[in-house]
Every structure is written in structure tokens, then in C-alpha cells.
């Protein structure tokens, strides 16, 4: 493909994308395929001679689309939103074209510098405490990680390093292996599975603490666990608190947890993967109160802030604690401006070496929407969630579980788990809308998330009508 052909095909591709997104709601939101469906549809090995672009695009419709779950359909209400927007797509296109690998400042200065400033812009949108911003000579700062899971792990590894250094400073003959074997980290039983996994990867005990009736982890519970563990000779060193849990969008009480962590020298990481985007609206910012106690904070603009995947924003109060954990300096990565105050080498802030120019898509989105446009997006989606909630509340066959705080509604038919399981299966089998369940205190619960940017009131009404019809069938024993 030469320059001229790229111009032509590029324009065709933009048309294809615009058509796809414009008409995606006409496609069944969930695919009707069996595992292994794809292999027989394409050759066993790559073609020796080049194929034509036309043939390839025909196969996109023949091979790919039938097996796509359409996350951008306004009838998609599963998991949480996966952000996309036209400015985000365009920014990503340019990032692909520049094609730099920005592991150090010298590897592409704009890639590093724009990222630092974008994380400051975003931190200011959330009104994060000053200490988290890189500013001009800050000790904190932000970085784009691939996912919230990585952020949790990176924070855990930094915390592990910090406690080992601290213990060895106090007692120089303590062996690292000895300290590691005594470490204990905490999280709530409602936190994301990636937190438990971070414990597995870092080979430290991860204790899951119980939550209150609102699925929130409270200070007293942590305090008691810390006392118990210290009495056993263990060393509490890390907690991952969640703002907006995956199951029910519950919020841990970081105002209570924070001071305990600070006085016990426990690294507090906050995972606000989904709900974090809402904090750009002043009316939701209270939910973030207590962040000032934390050592690191993370949320995913790629979930709800219109910046397409991947873009997980991660801030630390003390960048030295991250860099101190991950720093490696082989000669081929050294450059003249290393570590000179303002200069950031992001390879020390993350697990991989390579990194894409992801801040471009943030820049495009922030400038072309403006903070006001982003706030409107959040508010509209929260309103849609409340619209769905009120439909559920008006029907006394159903109940709401937990609280609708932002864009997720947990609900169920009053009745057995089996009944609700049938309802969920029936809904997804129809393929008109797509949702997933969760389990809350042994109850099988349906989650309805407001996802696509293009979701409107009519889609909420459509979804509810669908759910009601299937519920009627299920209760009559017809499903
Ligand atoms: C979605 C979610 C995650 C996982 O996000 P990734 O970026 O895919 O790792 C982690 N924590 C919470 C609370 C989430 O909702």
C-alpha cells in the first residue's frame, strides 16, 4: 500500500467506521456464534501473495462482525462502559502514525511531556490534591497505565519496596525474604478480582475484609484486622480501597480508612476504575473526599471519560517511591537528560518498557469536548441510570439492590436466585440488549450499566420493555 492508496483506503475506512457506529444499534448486540466459529471461515495460514483491500473488508463483515459483541451499541448494558469518541479515535490514529515508543524522555520528548501535562489537567479536573500533580517541580505526578489491574499491581509493588526499605532501615540485619513472608495487604471482599491477583503476582498475603450493609469497607473493620495481624507478628503494609466497586458500584469509606493507613504506615491505593470519571462533576466530587490520605489513586478514562482503550490514569504522591521500585538503567537506555528534575522517564513508572503515545487521545478529547462537554456526558448517563431505576421501582415485582449513585443499577425480580438466573439467560438469549449478573450477599442480581455514548432515553425504555416481557414469561414458566 503506497501513500496514494493509503489516502483512499483511509477515507474509506473512516466512512466504514462512521457507518458502523451510526447503525450499530440495528445489529444484534450479542453475537450468535459457538466457540471455534472463526477458524473454518478463514484459511489455515497467511496468504503467500497479498490479498486485496476489497476482499479484506468483505471478510470484516463475513468473518468478524458476526462474532462481535457490540460494546458501542446503545443496547449494550453489560460490565461497565468502554469509552470511545470521535476525537479519541482521531487522536489514536495520529498516535499510530507517529508510532514512537516513549519509554524515556529522549525516546520521544513530546510523548513524555504531553502525558505529564495531561495527567495534571485531568488531576485538576478531579480536584486532586496538589501533591499528586507534577506541576513544575512536584514530587508527585501521573502516568498512563494500560489498565486498573496494572495500577493496583504497580502500587502494591511500590508499597512492598517501601516497607522493606523502611524495615531494613530500622533493623539492618533483617533479611528481605523474612520481611516479605510477614507482609499482609488488605482489600474488601467486594473489590475487583485484579486486586487478589496482584497479591498472587507479588506473592504477598491479601486479606479480604468484610463490608457493611452498603458493601462499603469501614475503618473499624480495617483497624481490627490490623491489630489482629500485628498481634500475629505480621506486617500490614498495603490496602486497595475501591470507589465504585464492579459488582454494585459501592464506595469504601476512605475518610475512615485513610487516617488508619497513615498512622500505621500502610500504603493506601484507591481503585476508582469506573466511578472516577464522575468526580469531574462538582456534585460527585464529595465521593473522592479522603483521597488526600492516599499514596496512589487510579481511574480509567477508558471506561467512562470518552478516551478509548487503553488509558488508565494513575497518580502517586511521591514519584520517588515508584521510580525507586522499578529503576533499571542499562547503557542502551541512558540519555543526556536523565533524572534532571523535570525530566521523567516513564519506563520507571510501569512494568513494561515500551509505551504508546496515549496522551494524544486524551488531549484530543479534552480539547474537543472541554470540561463542560465531559461533565454533560457524565450527567446525561447518570440521569439515564436514574430513569431506569425509577422504572424498576415503579414495578413491585422488582427490587433495587444497593444504591444508584452514578451509572449502574443493580436490580432483581423479588424471588429466588433461580428465577433471576432464568431472567438473565432469557434477556441475553433474545440478544436485543446485553447485561451481566453479579452476586451480592448470596443474591443473584442483574446489573444494568449505562454504557454507549449514544444511549438515550428511548434505549432505556426499550430495554425495560424487553426485561418486563421476559420477566412475565419467566414467571409464567415459559422460559
Ligand atoms: C473495571 C474495573 C477494574 C479492571 O479494570 P482494567 O482496567 O480492565 O484492569 C478494576 N477495578 C474496578 C473497580 C473496575 O470496575
Automatic annotation (TrEMBL):
SUPFAM superfamilies: PLP-dependent transferases (SSF53383). The modification N6-(pyridoxal phosphate)lysine is found at residue 303. Gene3D superfamilies: Aspartate Aminotransferase, domain 1 (3.90.1150.10), dopa decarboxylase, N-terminal domain (1.20.1340.10), Type I PLP-dependent aspartate aminotransferase-like (Major domain) (3.40.640.10). GO terms for cellular component: cytoplasm. Keywords: Catecholamine biosynthesis, Decarboxylase, Lyase, Pyridoxal phosphate. Coiled coil: none annotated. Signal peptide: none annotated. Its cofactor is pyridoxal 5'-phosphate. GO terms for biological process: amino acid metabolic process; carboxylic acid metabolic process; catecholamine biosynthetic process; serotonin biosynthetic process. Pathway: Catecholamine biosynthesis; dopamine biosynthesis; dopamine from L-tyrosine: step 2/2. Pfam families: Pyridoxal_deC. It is an enzyme of class 4 (lyase). GO terms for molecular function: aromatic-L-amino-acid decarboxylase activity; pyridoxal phosphate binding. Its EC number is 4.1.1.28. Homodimer. Belongs to the group II decarboxylase family. This is Aromatic-L-amino-acid decarboxylase. It comes from Etmopterus molleri (Moller's lantern shark). The gene is DDC.
Amino acid at each position: 500500500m503506497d501513500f496514494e492508496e493509503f489516502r483512499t483506503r483511509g477515507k474509506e475506512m473512516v466512512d466504514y467506521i462512521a457507518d458502523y457506529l451510526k447503525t450499530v444499534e440495528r445489529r444484534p448486540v450479542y453475537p450468535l456464534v459457538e466457540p471455534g466459529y472463526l477458524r473454518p471461515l478463514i484459511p489455515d495460514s497467511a496468504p503467500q501473495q497479498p490479498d486485496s483491500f476489497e476482499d479484506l473488508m468483505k471478510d470484516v463483515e463475513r468473518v468478524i462482525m458476526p462474532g462481535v459483541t457490540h460494546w458501542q451499541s446503545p443496547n449494550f448494558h453489560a460490565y461497565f462502559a468502554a469509552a470511545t469518541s470521535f476525537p479519541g479515535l482521531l487522536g489514536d490514529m495520529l498516535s499510530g502514525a507517529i508510532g514512537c515508543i516513549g519509554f524515556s524522555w529522549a525516546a520521544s520528548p513530546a510523548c513524555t511531556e504531553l502525558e505529564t501535562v495531561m495527567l495534571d489537567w485531568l488531576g485538576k479536573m478531579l480536584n486532586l490534591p496538589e501533591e499528586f500533580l507534577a506541576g513544575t517541580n512536584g514530587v508527585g505526578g501521573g502516568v498512563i497505565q494500560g489498565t486498573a489491574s496494572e495500577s493496583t499491581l504497580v502500587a502494591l509493588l511500590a508499597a512492598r519496596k517501601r516497607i522493606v526499605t523502611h524495615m531494613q532501615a530500622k533493623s539492618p540485619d533483617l533479611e528481605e525474604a523474612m520481611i516479605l513472608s510477614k507482609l499482609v495487604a488488605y482489600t474488601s471482599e467486594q473489590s475487583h478480582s485484579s486486586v487478589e491477583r496482584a497479591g498472587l503476582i507479588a506473592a504477598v498475603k491479601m486479606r479480604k475484609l468484610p463490608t457493611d450493609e452498603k458493601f462499603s469497607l469501614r475503618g473499624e473493620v480495617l483497624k481490627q484486622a490490623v491489630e489482629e495481624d500485628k498481634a500475629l507478628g505480621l506486617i500490614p503494609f498495603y490496602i486497595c480501597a475501591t470507589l465504585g466497586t464492579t459488582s454494585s458500584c459501592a464506595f469504601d469509606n476512605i475518610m475512615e480508612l485513610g487516617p488508619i493507613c497513615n498512622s500505621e504506615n500502610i500504603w493506601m491505593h484507591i481503585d476508582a476504575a469506573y466511578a472516577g470519571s464522575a468526580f469531574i462533576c462538582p456534585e460527585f466530587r464529595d465521593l473522592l473526599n479522603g483521597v488526600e490520605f492516599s499514596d496512589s489513586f487510579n481511574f480509567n478514562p477508558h471506561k467512562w471519560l470518552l478516551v478509548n482503550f487503553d488509558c488508565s490514569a494513575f497518580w502517586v504522591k511521591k514519584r520517588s517511591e515508584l521510580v525507586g521500585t522499578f529503576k533499571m538503567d542499562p547503557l542502551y537506555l541512558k540519555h543526556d537528560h536523565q533524572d534532571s528534575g523535570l525530566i521523567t522517564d516513564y519506563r520507571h513508572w510501569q512494568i513494561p518498557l515500551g509505551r504508546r503515545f496515549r496522551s494524544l487521545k486524551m488531549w484530543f478529547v479534552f480539547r474537543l469536548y472541554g470540561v463542560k462537554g465531559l461533565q454533560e456526558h457524565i450527567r446525561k448517563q447518570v440521569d439515564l441510570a436514574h430513569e431506569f431505576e425509577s422504572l424498576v421501582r415503579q414495578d413491585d415485582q422488582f427490587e433495587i439492590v444497593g444504591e444508584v449513585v452514578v451509572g449502574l443499577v443493580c436490580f432483581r425480580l423479588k424471588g429466588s436466585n433461580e428465577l433471576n438466573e432464568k431472567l438473565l439467560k432469557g434477556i441475553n438469549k433474545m440478544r436485543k440488549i446485553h447485561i451481566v449478573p453479579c452476586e451480592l450477599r448470596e443474591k443473584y442480581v442483574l446489573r444494568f450499566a449505562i454504557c454507549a455514548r449514544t444511549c438515550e432515553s428511548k434505549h432505556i425504555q426499550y430495554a425495560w420493555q424487553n426485561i418486563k416481557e421476559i420477566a412475565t414469561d419467566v414467571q409464567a414458566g415459559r422460559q
